[in-house]
Sequence to fold (194 residues):
Amino acid sequence: MPEPSSSVTVSAETRARPLPGDLDRRRALFALLVCVVALPASWLLFSQLERLWPEIVRLEGLGFLAAATLLGGVMAIGPLAAALGFLIAVWFGVRSVYSARSLATPLLDRVIVGAGLLVWFMPALAAIAQAVRALTTGRIHFVRPPRDYLLATDPIAFWQGVGFWLIIAGLAGFLAWRYWQPKLFPAHDAAPEA
Fold:
């Protein structure tokens, strides 16, 4: 792994304007805060839904309309805010590692890069897990349309399903690799042209 940006001596005139890495680290921290607040709030709302909905149903007219709309909006936005907050936190965290910062944090940088690698390669790992699961059980399941293909009774469709998951894994892995290759191996990209 290349060395992330090292500590930079900051002059008085540049202190007024934060370095790009510091700004990205603040953005990542804010997005992580959104995730940490939205996730338990969403869980609490969904767990109390059986108690909340009868109270809302008792309302009439405009009160019911406002309460039902607010509840539906919060139920839609809460989990989305948690997921996007996490992804944005990882994105800006990774960007901050490879940008100029005023303070070096090598251990935190490694944790951020590790989390970033896991998030970027997770779709490929999930697709590989589906293919391995199908190979170990002899059955592959697709949700839409709902189908189960068994190796014993329908081997062609089974192997097509396994191939589909492997193609998806290859595509997702390739895209993740294209993002991470210049960050992890910058000397490889800077090779002189012949």
